[in-house]
């Protein structure tokens, strides 16, 4: 298999929805959303984006590699922190424009804030001031991000 061009060109609806050909649809910025979920608990860990190159790299090495929109560069999850994500399965939706990565999280957390998951708050509704509110953080931090990333 030639991994320099591993994706099948997008075809008709039947090809996208029923065939075994992987034809991911990247948006106008060349990105596809990828939700990383714990393979055992199915807890959402983080949402990131992949471009064609990072998705190809993820398939090659079996670990999550994303595109950092803020830094405009390839981002191998855990390269700095050591908190990598071993990919056990990748799923795509019916029209192949979104991905779910079922991963084994290596290390104490997926979130740069020091938590196991980036989804650590709930939207609780509209407050008396008319603005939407969030809950307090759910759960404790699993590591100190200042020690891991050298920030203060």
Structural notes for this entry:
Strands 2-1-6-5 form a four-stranded mixed β-sheet. β1 (32-38) and β2 form a beta hairpin. The model has no long low-confidence stretch (mean pLDDT 94). The protein contains three helices and eight strands, in the order αββαββββββα. It has a domain at 13-107: Phosphoribosyl-AMP cyclohydrolase (Ubiquitin-like (UB roll)). It is 14% helix and 29% strand. It is α+β, with helices and mostly antiparallel strands and 152 residues long. The longest helix is centred in the middle third of the chain and has 10 residues, at 52-61. It has helices at 13-18, 52-61, 145-149, and strands at residues 32-38, 44-50, 65-68, 73-76, 85-92, 99-105, 123-126, 132-134.
Secondary structure tally, helices: 3
- Which structural class is indicated by helix and strand composition? alpha+beta
Q: How is the main sheet built?
A: 4 strands, mixed
CATH structural class of the domain at 13-107: Alpha Beta
- Which strand order do you get reading across the main beta sheet? 2-1-6-5
**Total E-strand runs:** 8
Q: In a few lines, what is going on in this structure?
A:
The chain is an alpha+beta fold and 152 residues long. Helix content is 14%, strand content 29%.
List the helices and strands and how they pair.
Blueprint: H1 13-18, E1 32-38, E2 44-50, H2 52-61, E3 65-68, E4 73-76, E5 85-92, E6 99-105, E7 123-126, E8 132-134, H3 145-149
Parallel strand pairs: 1-6
Antiparallel strand pairs: 1-2, 3-4, 5-6, 7-8
Based on the model shown, name its key terms.
Ubiquitin-like (UB roll), 29% strand, four-stranded mixed β-sheet, single chain, alpha+beta, 3 helices, two-stranded antiparallel ribbon
């Amino acid at each position: 298999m030639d991994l320099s061009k591993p994706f099948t060109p997008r075809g008709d609806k039947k090809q996208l929805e029923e065939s075994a050909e992987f034809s991911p649809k990247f948006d106008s910025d060349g990105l596809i959303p990828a939700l990383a979920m714990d393979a055992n608990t199915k807890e959402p860990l983080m949402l990131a984006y992949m471009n064609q190159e990072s998705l190809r790299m993820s398939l090659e090495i079996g670990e999550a590699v994303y595109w950092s929109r803020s830094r405009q560069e390839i981002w191998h999850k855990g390269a700095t922190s050591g908190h990598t994500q071993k990919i056990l399965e990748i799923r795509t939706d019916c029209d192949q424009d979104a991905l779910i990565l079922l991963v084994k999280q290596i290390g104490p957390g997926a979130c740069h804030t020091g938590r196991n998951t980036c989804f650590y708050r709930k939207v609780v509704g509209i407050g008396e001031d008319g603005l939407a509110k969030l809950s307090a953080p759910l759960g404790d931090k699993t590591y100190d991000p200042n020690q891991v990333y050298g920030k203060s």
